[in-house]
Structures are given as C-alpha cells and as structure tokens.
Amino acid sequence: MPLSPRIQARGVQLLLGRMMSRVHKDLRFTDIPKRTEALLVRTGAGPVPCTVYRPPTDTGRAPVYVNFHGGGFVVGRPEQDDHICRYIAATADCVVINVDYAVAPQRQFPVPVTQAYDVTAWVAQNGPAGGWDGSRLAVGGHSAGANLTAAVCRMARDRGSFSPRLQIIDSAPLDQLADPATKESLIAKPLLSPQLMRVFTAAYVPDPADRADPLVSPALADDLVGLPPALVITAENDRLRGEGDAYAKALEAAGVPVIHRVFEGADHYFTHTGPVPAGKTAIDMMATTLATALSV
Question: Which one of the listed residues 69, 83, 142, 268 is annotated catalytic?
Fold first, then answer.
C-alpha cells in the first residue's frame, strides 16, 4: 500500500530538514557581522516568527526587504537563508525580515500564502514601530519562497495595499499543474527529481483543482500587468528553469521591467550549495539590484 502524501512529506522533513540548513562554507559570509532580533507578526493564519537583520549603520529609516526561504513548501528552515540575509542587509544597507512561514503537510495552501502576504503588509504598514521605511519595500525568495513572492506581489497589486519596489524570483516553481516528469534538465541527475516534486506539490496543494490558481501557479496567470519590477534568476540545469525563463518573458511582455539571468553550469539551490562563483554572483546581484530599487 503506497504511503499517503502526508506521510511522505513528513519523511522528507525528517530526511532533508537538517541537510537543507547546510550552506557551502565559502558562501556563508561569516566575515559580515550579524545584528538580528526576533519578531512575531500576527496574521490571518496564525502568528509567524521572523528574524530581523539590521544593516551595519542602522538609522531607523533604512528600506526593508522581506525574504521567504525555500524547501518545497515542506521543509521549514529559515536559517538556511542566513548568509543571503546578512549579505543583503550589509550590502544593500537595508533591514531584512526573514519569514518563518508555516509548511506542509501540517499547514497547506492557502495558509503559507496568507501568512506571507500578511507579514509583508504588516512590514509595509509598521515602519516607524519597526525601525525601517515601509514605503521603500521589496520582497523576494528562493525556490518555494520565490513562488510565495509572486503570490504576495499579485495580492498586493489586486488589493492596492502596498507597492513593492522589486520582487526577486530565484529558481521558482511557478507551474504546479504540469507533471514534474515533463520538466527536463540538461544533466542526468539534477537535484530535483519528479518523485520529490510530486511529494512537495501533493503535500502543499492536495486538491488538484487548486493547482491552476495563480497564487499556486503564477506562470499560468494571464494578467501580469502592473506587477512590481522583477529580478528573475534561473539555473541552467534546474528542472524549474523552463518555467522561470517563461515567467520572465511573460512579465516583460506585460510591460513589467525585468532583469533576467540564467546561471550556466548551475542547478537548483546553487545560491546555497554552489558552484561558489555562481552563488556569490547571484547573491551579489540580488543585493545590488535591491540597493538600486530601494534607493529611489
């Protein structure tokens, strides 16, 4: 008898949780001092713990970047993005909010989307209390976190609640309706297998009818006009590259300013595991693009 998607997802959490917290030693940026504090944000789907990273010269008026970690919507390890958060805080001279959103199978769609949006809206509205400039806000994420980023930006546009200066879409799953077996890689054994991707999708969105929802599959949306400017990062050997490349083109066709970079020789999660030159370049690209977007 096959295991249920819930049991499979719990197994993935146990097997991959610790591994996903590991970052290549040459990508940890341990030379950059870290100033952090804990934050708890109340949302419509429960309280959400966050970690606040302060820039080295914090005046209380710095812009702010909201970060969503990856993990296939199943592995909840915000600390895996510590290196990215500390580098961005120091290099882009902004406050970074690293969000510990709920994951499946314990909490399923739309809970993570609700939490991601509500945290970002709270950050936008509570700058004076938090010690940042909520009117100069950007949002971004990695893998599953990039999917949540796209959802947050869509909801913000539709509700007219806040206007991110930039969205960072890094190695995102953007089409959860397509069979993962149709998502090909240029290498024989890429990091993401179709079986693992099916476990992630079934745990996060158990009802197949929900998988075409633009908040689940942003690549299937046909109304992209008015979304924030985007930095879209894809990896040459990633199974998710195709949908990321297509999303960048669709945004551009809708009149959204887009910077798109495909990193050659890299696979999914390369900003954490390497190759180190590509990982460093991508992270620096995030920070410098943010610095420009948040300075205006």
Answer: 268
